[in-house]
Amino acid sequence: MIPVLIPSLPETDAIVPYLRRIDEAHIYSNYGPLTKAFTDRLCRLIGAQSGDGPVHAALTSNGTTAIELALRYRSAGRPGRYCVMPSWTFIASAHAAANVGLTPYFTDVDPGSLALTPEIAARALRANPGDVAAVVVVSPCGAPIEIEAWEAFEAEYGVPVIFDAAAAGLNLRQVGAQPLCISLHATKALGIGEGGAIITADAAMAAAITGMTGFGFAAGSRVSEMRGGNYRISEYAAAVGLAVLDGLDARIARLREVSLAYVAGFEAIGVPMQAGFGRDWLTMTANAIFDAGAVAEVTAAFDRSGIQWRRWYGGGCHTHPTFATCPHDGLAATRGVAETTIGIPFFPSLAPEQIAEVCGCAGQVLSSR
Ligand SMILES: *Cc1c(COP(=O)(O)O)cnc(C)c1O
């Protein structure tokens, strides 16, 4: 069997030096020294990815709560019931909106980029005049986000935009004021187990949201000035995070190697992968896009061959009972995107023979049709 994903985090020995620091400091949470060091290194890493300009971060307990707090901060005091977001996303995006009292309004995605576009979002605003509190733009499985287009969108329509960039931690090419929410879950490229971060060029926003992660206390005070809760990470999580960053270069090199081998393998059988995957950006999920007429046969062949596969975003959020009554824009392209975008086995230790097996299995089905 070839599993669809094998998460891998630093091994114990790489974490131990950081654990000893915790033993010495007797600080276990509440923005301790390891959390500060991890935050600084994360900002420097993303600053280096995104060129110059300041990068600030608020760490959160996970990616879902990062989205939740960014939405709470940016939609506070705004009119409107709805949070516009693509249906084709991981269900966490919808829960985050619902957790701050908004109802998701599900939109379609562009079938080429698999992402929400400013045109689709503008159509959603026209369909719900005055009733949209915020827009969540999702990075599909980690693909880079066109930040400038969304800055122009927010300037034109006056509706706050936040980015669910949960899987895009290695692909933040630009950081503006609009918050980029990333996940540090074990299954993401920057995984530390559980954790999240809100990345922004807006220092005041990062400071305020950090306050929201600790009961809304302003820095250095015990007076609650904002709605929030306990959304912090512990020093133990930060210890793992520091060990992850120590090993990141090797991880990136490995991900690139495996990704490019896949791109070549699928190119040889004429099957596109998600646009730019491997060549332009790196993530932890590999999607191949099969013809609608062939996808059932290919996945059946995967099943027979013990090749695990997954539709990472299922049929879209609107197909889940919890969100089935939410309004949507008709989702004309979503069904096709959900049907044909297939997550194939992908992880850093994937061997060339396994890649050959996956591509060979799909290729055999396609050539016999
Ligand atoms: C993983 C993911 C999340 C949730 O992140 P957690 O850290 O698991 O809470 C949200 N949105 C998308 C698109 C994701 O892939």
Automatic annotation (TrEMBL):
Kindly give the InterPro entries that the UniProt entry links to this protein.
Answer: DegT/StrS_aminotransferase, PyrdxlP-dep_Trfase, PyrdxlP-dep_Trfase_major
Is Heme given among the entry's keywords?
no
Might you name a Gene Ontology BP term for this protein?
polysaccharide biosynthetic process
User: Could you tell me what this protein is called?
Assistant: dTDP-4-amino-4,6-dideoxygalactose transaminase
User: Which SUPFAM superfamilies does the protein's record reference?
Assistant: PLP-dependent transferases
Query: In which domain of life is the source organism classified?
Result: Bacteria
Query: Keywords of this protein's UniProt record, alphabetized?
Result: Pyridoxal phosphate
Q: Where is the active site?
A: K188 (proton acceptor)
Protein's UniProt keywords contain Chaperone: no
Gene Ontology molecular function, alphabetical: pyridoxal phosphate binding; transaminase activity
Q: Which residues carry this modification: N6-(pyridoxal phosphate)lysine?
A: K188
Q: Give the family this protein belongs to, as stated in its UniProt record.
A: Belongs to the DegT/DnrJ/EryC1 family.
